[in-house]
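Entry 14. Ran structure prediction on the chain below.
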Amino acid sequence: MRSLYQIAIHLFILGMRIASLFNKKIKKGIQGRKNWRNSLDDIPKDANVIWFHCASLGEFDQGLPVMSALKKNTPNAFILLTFFSPSGIDHYQKREHPVDLAIYLPFDTKSNARTFLKKAKPSLALFVKYEFWPNFISECKRAKVKTVSISTLLRSSQVYFKWYGGFFRGALKKIDYFFVQNQQSKTLLESIGVKQIEISGDTRYDKVIQHKNSSTSPDPVLSQFAAEGPILIAGSTWEVEEKIIKKFLESNTKMKVIIAPHNINSNNIERIQSLLDCPSVRYTKYKEYQGNRVLILDTIGHLTSAYQYADYALIGGGFSG
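Output, structure tokens:
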């Protein structure tokens, strides 16, 4: 299976290169990976490198409280951040963060993983939520780099828990410690022989509390919309949470909701508006309050400042993503 994976990852890279000819997002990811070796040369020689890997911006939000704590409490800490998706690289700087260097994660070949670790020399590697790349994990083990998975969320449908998933289970077993979101994830890991596990919840809740209690500059659109009535903030929502919001609006007629969907493309926004079937407006089209009960953030970067207006918060992805 190991040999098949090595072949598959090279075929995956070839497929991505072909797809980049037709897809701008994939093209950006391919181009962004060209100079990762040179980027790692910018790390100071005496730095204590702590490496975080996040698939995209949502996982970055989960990792952010941990990054901030480690940066504050670790002498000479250098936070190295890798993303798989362009949306992470493009938008993470809109957050207040302690990151020293952010790059795309090189594709998961043995040689890439070995070169990455040789250049970066991390003392600790942290993987956020559920993106695990076998070659990088194996090379961390070989190089004696401690590995931790935080805000881990696992489901029985994932390959690690299938009869044919032995190779991928092996990658999970090489991780030194798991901080999982729920009992289900802990039980699944225990079922494959993993013992170093602690239930710590979703670190996005820590981030929400931080923003709720911080002094953020007022946003004129959000301030006007939230002026009257209790406010529910729903961040990074998927369809399952949006169906819950619909029922919530129907049973709480004075409540208003600010939604930041996981996917902000126009078709998805229209789907949400149709589903909720109540007066709603997009952030980019808001002019003045006209009785709308729902404000949809069709932008990236405004969710953080929205939490100061919240009476209640719903964190998306707990039922699906």
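Residues 2 and 225 are 54 Å apart (CA to CA). Will compare against last week's run tomorrow.
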